[in-house]
Amino acid sequence: MARLVVLRGGHSMERDISLVTGGRVAHALERLGHEVRSLDVEESMTERLMELDPDAAFVCLHGLGGEDGTVQALLETLGIPYTGSGPLSSIRSMDKDYAKRAMLADSVPTPPFRTFLRRAMHEMGAAAALRPAADSLGYPLIVKPARQGSGFGLTKVEEPEGLLEAVYEAFGYDGKILLEKYVTGAEITAPILEPAGEGPRVLNLVEVRPRGGSYDFEAKYTPGATDFAIPAEVPTDAAARAEETALAAYRTLGCSGFGRVDMILDGDVPWVLDANTIPGFTETSTLPLAAESAGMRFEELVETILDAALQTEAPAKL
Amino acid sequence: MPLVDLDRFDFLYANRVKGMKSAATRDLMATLSRPGIISLAGGFPDTRAFGEEAFREISEQVAAESAQALQYGPTAGLEGIKDIIVDVMAAEGTRANQEDVFITTGAQQGLDLVAKVFLDEGDAVLCEGPTYAGALNAFAAYRPRIIHVPMDRAGMMPVPAREALKKARKQGIRVKFIYTVPNFQNPTGVTLAAERRRELLKIAEEYDLIILEDNPYGMLRFEGEALPTIASLEQEKFGSTDRVVYLGTFSKIFAPGVRLGWVHAQPGILHKINIGKQGADLCSSNLTQMLIHSYFSHANWRAYVKRLTALYKERRDAMLDSLAEFMPKEVHWTHPEGGLFVWATLPIYVDATSMLPLAISRNIAYVPGEGFYSGGAGKNCMRLNFSFVEPAKIRRGIELLAEVVRERMELRSDLERGSQLGAQHSASRSAVGNPER
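Predict the joint structure of the above. Result:
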């Protein structure tokens, strides 16, 4: 039995999802016999963590503050072991611009993209480069905030006329945005688990089929709005390549413990769109669904992730 | 492996709920529970003003009659509370008939029941544009067409209202009723001018329509003369209630937690509403009716409303003052003489919905305007609530909001200036590097 803290809530757009994730994880940990305290992100959090001095923190925060290395760096400073990836790998995965650059450098396929920053728009007239950048990527293309999850602020732009609106929308969510080449194919996501003392493995490839056509925030978190095929119904060698690519992305980004890599399978190329270091644990989330289909109960999944955090002989997190 | 089906009864759901979506803005609203945020997004009266002692007192009085409080009651409501409502309506400016009062579970149920009684699929309702979002939700279950009539600072405009009715008639669309919130409307805070109330009644006569007069805020007047209700104008003109269905509520003058409102209408309509309510919930809670009865017959409720009004006036002033101090000159807003809300209009190119995430990240929230229209208008507008937030926080909130608006305006001009330049270069691909690298 361990004394644990579950961190959930936070200030990001995905606060509600985090509360659900945290609630489910806390219950599972209690059923496993651990002593669990749940904390929200607020001014007294650090003090509470120092008072409680837990054996480990189970981080169930999504988005900025929780998934971008902020809380990870704090926990490291406090000497509290925590679940999932370290600070550098967190910020790298959270920021799609960083993630894609790292993947390109390691020859992990990711769709061509261009990055724009709010500051450059204001101080350097960077808006003049928007149209040429879009033209070079070709239409349709995707405009999205660099550091935002759950499909917030993401627009598919069909023609030049829609570009400005999409950019305007995306900047509402982040000061950094991406224009990304639109790739079509099956939406595949690879939930990855890295148990203590073992290498990372893909639990099961999940094929996402949103009924409304796009896998947006609503499709993600409304039961029945999305169908999942587990394992993904794709040819065996394409599946093998997708698994390999997902693991390559996971390693390139330096993830630890668990994660999820989202891809589009275009013919036999698995294009990596992004990696999540703290995917959701809600009842419609792909990680617990994939674990279940691989014969792993929710409690077992949670315990495995916790064990990886508690192992003392593991190499330092990135 | 078969598909994982998360909602396996999907194929059984009724068509009317299949189309109902949780708006993206509602998902954003979920973040409002987070600590530190100043929310001007609510529509809450400030129930903290009521106090524990007063609540204990009225509860004790009800406890003496616990058997009745815990029992079912008549569908139309307890007799005692109807007498209270006659008093309240007199204070609101309408001479009500005790037999014409029908208790509902909040005025919101009144909206649902009136829609249930009058609307077939495809019938139309004439509403203010913008209108109360909760009314749109209540009507939506009966799948009507919503026709918005534009407003100015004197409320719904009669000329476009007439035109809309003429057009609907031509197209064979059956308009059943006109829905209006005449006093300090939700969301705009605008009050329907006296002559327009008469005009609206005339229009309803010409087209033989019902007027649904929803008056939750009438008593929350900070300044100026109270205007006659449409219900009272009808009584004055014809001697009795006919086509005006009046909705009242205790939510704003007492507390929304009791979920108690009423319909005042002629007996024929009330009979149909009675049948509707029997199917919906049999009767409203005796317990809360008796709580209200106890309070309104023993305490000085007028003094409480006065106290609330003074509180809200101070907050409205704080909001108007800080809007004037902080907002860029391109932003306009209404100047309500009462109620809970101010409606702000941003430059046409600033989308209040897509601005919300940035605002929330700066710890300030509001309700984007498009939810108050059926069909996408009002994108550059927002509703700001002042009743629930202390003046100092309102001031800080408006200051933060003004910064966000300025940033969005600035981004827009950066984008537009830049893209004009960019368009000149877009022919040459060499302007940017090869993205394939």
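Chain A has three domains: 3-83, 91-109+184-310, 113-181.
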